[in-house]
Queue: 2 jobs
Job 1
Amino acid sequence: MPDDNDTLLDVRDLKTHFFTDEGVVKAVDGVNLSLKRGQTLCVVGESGCGKSVTARSILRIVPAPGRIVSGEISFRGRHGDRIDLARMNPRGRDIRNIRGREISMIFQEPMSSLSPVHTIGSQLMEAILLHLPVSKGEARKRAVSLLDLVGIPRASEQLDAYSFELSGGMRQRAMIAIALACEPQLLIADEPTTALDVTTQANILDLIRELQEDSGMSVLFITHDLSVVAEIADEVVVMYLGRDVESGDVDTIFHNPKHPYTRALLQSIPRYDSLAGERLYSLKGTVPHPFSRPAGCPFHPRCDDVIAGQCNTNDPQRYSISAGHSVRCLLYAAEENRSVVDTPA
Ligand SMILES: Nc1ncnc2c1ncn2[C@@H]1O[C@H](COP(=O)(O)OP(=O)(O)O)[C@@H](O)[C@H]1O
Ligand code: SF4
Ligand SMILES: [Mg+2]
């Protein structure tokens, strides 16, 4: 476990599998990530690569038949104690005290986490009263100031609104207000802007950034959209088929990407200086079915740089390119002095 005070969350070699009747889905199969206080870490990758299951594993809300099979989720609690969330009882009191209080999560679809039969105000007050020792009156005041903080106009009137009465952007703001009710140290945002129009998306990203600057909380931001990563990330982890394939700070990932998958993702985003009519690179093939994980490097059937006879049999380790920059690709295995990043088995 890391012992520096700055690291809030450190996930090592996390594996979360689903044991279905048809077979085992290795949704997360060796993920490493580290998040410092006050920073934003973006987890990026195509749909189905295990981003949401990683987030749910951290909060211990993986649905059956899924479970964490190995790995460590080291989290530094409010009192400075370091705890391994992976070892907690998912239904126990300890993790329930952490959910909402120390770590909050917002989802792509607010309707799935907002109740349709309770007002926004009562849901906000419930979140406050569950974790903070305040009176109902104080909770109500706090609820108004939270709605105000997230930019909901006429906050005191909106306490009595139901979620279906709000627009998509306002619903997302209400969900953020509930997530922030107890001033969590970590906010996990799972594609929170994907369902929104571009302008509302930009407003919500600005809001998260401002709230973070004011409160110093850390954000684990999940997205499939690299333009969002460019806006908001300090650090980036690129995932493919349940693994981290490349990690580094945002400048390194955008200006010195090493993994062929990261490069292909970057080439497939539209740039402001693209020529009219210019075709964007598109990743060939699709993400394999979860039951038919390719042998060797799982990316090899889609890789432009595949090394014949090697990539289809050897599973790449994490190689260190420079401090804080690692990549799982055999192209970097042979280089002199290349060290393997230590991950516990
Ligand atoms: N409840 C479940 N049962 C079986 N497989 C699941 C379940 N939830 C997710 N998976 C599988 O886990 C993999 C990763 O899913 P997910 O984390 O949702 O991807 P992402 O969020 O990156 O789009 C996918 O192959 C998905 O089909
Ligand atoms: S290990 Fe081989 S197949 Fe995998 S990303 Fe690197 S070059 Fe491509
Ligand atoms: Mg997802």
Note: The chain is about 30% helix and 25% strand.
Job 2
Amino acid sequence: MENTTHFGFKDVATEDKQGLVRGVFDSVASKYDLMNDVLSFGAHRLWKRYTVASSNVKTGDKVLDIAGGTGDLAIEFRKKAGESGKVILSDINAAMLAEGRRNLTNKGVFGVEFIQLNAENLPFESNSFDCVSIAFGLRNVTDKDQALREMHRILKPGGCLLVLEFSKTDNELLSQAYDFYSFNIMPKLGGIIADDEESYQYLAESIRQHPDQETLKNMVLDAGFSFCEYHNLTGGIVALHKGIKA
Ligand SMILES: C[S@@+](CC[C@H](N)C(=O)[O-])C[C@H]1O[C@@H](n2cnc3c(N)ncnc32)[C@H](O)[C@@H]1O
């Protein structure tokens, strides 16, 4: 790994990024769901629904949601995998996992397991999951290639990887409007609603630093997946990459 990496638009020592990201999510955890609804005008719910609908998860399957936060994907996977399946909601951040636990309990969703872990080092046996997902999490991970290799390792042959993440729109007008919104409005709303302008400035910057659709597709293939395709959502502002392990 390099000695420095991105934290938003800043270059920071590689070993410092994880702690800085933790600070962001410690700070936003209690207002995370509200902010998601406000900032995306509710669209994140459609993107996530599309993600779970695109998975091949069926009754009895074993699913790991990484960087699962407040558990939106885990709730939907639980419905698909059913009582005989197993769904694990994992995240590196204890505050986000606590919000996830609260959210699932409030919604009457039981039977999901919670594990605190780093995406770069998954404490599971090889070839043990039918589906692994990560939504809006990969851009926060310091060593994304290592995380993708780990996801590949723990998937069963034929298993499916789902990476939902902000991406790049090639529509010039949409891109300009989105830039204006991200850098002028999003941090201000973060300041007003969550009393944390700085974290929402980081979130806007981290989106711009994340690899575009084709680059991420190549990273998925380089991690060992035999197949990867992506589908743009909302004009490419978000993309869903789907990888299959041979
Ligand atoms: C933007 S939130 C996404 C939460 C949820 N997946 C969603 O879509 O609403 C990003 C999450 O990634 C988690 N995260 C950051 N770095 C991580 C890492 N290295 N391993 C696992 N989770 C990580 C954060 O704690 C945070 O909960």
Note: Residues 121 and 229 are 25 Å apart (CA to CA).
